[in-house]
Amino acid sequence: xxxxxxxxxxxxxxxxxxxxxxxxxxxxxxxxxxxxxxxxxxxxxxxxxxxxxxxxxxxxxxxxxxxxxxxxxxxxxxxxxxxxxxxxxxxxxxxxxxxxxxxxxxxxxxxxxxxxxxxxxxxxxxxxxxxxxxxxxxxxxxxxxxxxxxxxxxxxxxxxxxxxxxxxxxxxxxxxxxxxxxxxxxxxxxxxxxxxxxxxxxxxxxxxxxxxxxxxxxxxxxxxxxxxxxxxxxxxxxxxxxxxxxxxxxxxxxxxxxxxxxxxxxxxxxxxxxxxxxxxxxxxxxxxxxxxxxxxxxxxxxxxx
Length: 305
Prior knowledge:
The chain has 305 residues and is α/β, with parallel strands linked by helices. The protein has a single domain (10-103, 149-302), classed as Rossmann fold. It is 53% helix and 8% strand. The chain has a 5-stranded mixed sheet.
């Protein structure tokens, strides 16, 4: 199917998002898209994860060797049971794994520092007013909803970062032979803006008119990061033997699963592999119960968010 090529200006993009009822996500996306600050893909590694004598992705990037890239499997790893199962399974197959983690809160905080400070200041002023007109009240409620989403993203990120730290130690403790194949996680703190890709993504959402799409902006961030990362040689929508395998750990019970599959059908997310898309949470747990070591499985069973 032909890709939608309409490029929206910022006002049109916001109108489209509002039309499909993105709610709080739409408000967040509007602030994000309308931010004019220029950004590039930026990331870091944690020193504790670097292993002396073992190459990491940074050194491979410097060589700009696409053949090296295709030997690596990239997996978006947030420490949940789905992505952790895929990571361990691939390591047991002697694959070279590059975990990726998008620090969504860090990205929003950096892009919208002035905006966040302004909203907090405005809310404090409004709290000191005994009477507010309807317009100010609506704006205050909108700002409150936005801040609540930011707080939720922050808490989720803190939890996931801790999960990644603990699980890496547990995995390498159980399987020391994985040291050579498990690269330090790439923690992504900035993603290059791409109005064409973003417009295409949300235009497609507008055509699909999903009943639910809360959190789907993460998929758009994944696509933008991949397009400008160099891993795919910018051929996101083309079949190319030089494109490495890139994995998301979304299973059948993922809250946006139906929408994600529709986006794949429309060739919007075709670059991403979803190995668990045909099984649900319970089936994943059953597989992991027989697959994980006892300590790792106990960790998941005792650390439910």
